[in-house]
Amino acid sequence: VQLVESGGGLVQPGGSLRLSCTAIGITSNYYTMNWFRQAPGQEREGVSCINVRGDSAWYADSVKGRFTISKDAAKNTIYLQMSDLKPEDTAIYYCAVGGCAVLESVRAWGQGTQVTVSS
Predict the structure, then answer these.
(1) Hey, what's the torsion of the CAs at 92, 20, 50, 64, to 10 degrees?
(2) Which 3 state secondary structure label does DSSP give 50?
(3) Pairing with 23, which of 33, 75, 79, 85 sits 20 to 30 Å away (CA)?
């Protein structure tokens, strides 16, 4: 199982980024897919997850209304559209397969992509 992320970078406060995660070796339609993040000196935390059918999602309170998770079953890819970014969103973002926002249930991790929000 391999999860390949892309789309991170440096953005100014209020800006937007879209992260992508392509699953190789598994079919994302069979699993709940997640985005986690880890800021320096902090624990890894759940940001968002999307269910198998792609018709239900969960968001952490800190990103609700600003981030949107979606999936493209044909491309075996999930996305995280991030808008109105804030400096506190700065972190390494990880794609993961497992129960929604439950670290202990993660079966596979992506390599991570850095998101930096700074003026």
Answers:
(1) 60
(2) strand
(3) 85
Q: How far apart are CA 110 and CA 84, in angstroms?
A: 24
Phi, psi dihedrals of residue 53, rounded to the nearest 5°: -80, -15
Q: What pLDDT digit, counting tens, does each position of 66-106 carry?
A: 999 999 989 999 999 999 999 999 999 999 998 898 998 99
State the residue for tokens 């269910």: 51
Contact 96, 3 (CB under 8 A): yes
Residue 79: the pLDDT is 97
What are the backbone angles phi and psi of residue 16, rounded to the nearest 5°?
-130, 155
Closest Cα to residue 36, out of 9, 63, 55?
A: 63
